[in-house]
Amino acid sequence: MTDFYQRMIDFTRDGVYRYRYDDGTLLAANRGLVRILGLSCEPSELLGKRLRDVMVYTEPEGTVRRAASATGEIHGLEYHFKTLSGKDRWVVHDSFLVHDPRDGEVVEAIVKDVTSHKLAVEALRRTSQLLDAAQATAGVGGWELDPVAGKLYWTAETYRIHDTSPEEYQPEVESAIAFYAPESEPIIRAAVQEAIVGGTPFDLELELVTAKGRRIWAHATSRVTVENGRTVKVTGAFQDITERRRAADELRRLNADLEERVRERTAQLEIANHDLEAFAYSVSHDLRAPLRTIDGFSQILLQEHASSLDAEGRRYLQLVRAGAQEMGQLIDDLLRLSRLTRQAPVLGPMSMDDAVGAALDVLSRDREGREIRLEVAPLPPCTGDPALLKQVWTNLLSNALKFTSKRESALVQVGSRTENDRPVYFVRDNGAGFDMRYQDKLFRVFQRLHRADQFEGNGIGLAIVALIVERHGGRIWARGETDRGAEFCFTIGGAS
Amino acid sequence: MTDRSLEILLVEDNPRDEELTLHSLRRHNVTNKIHVVRDGQEALDYLFGGETSTPRVILLDLKLPKVDGLDVLRRVKGDDRTRDIPVVVLTSSREERDLAEAYKLGVNSYVVKPVNFERFADAVRQLGLYWLLLNEAPTSVK
Question: pTM here?
Answer without folding.
Answer: 0.48
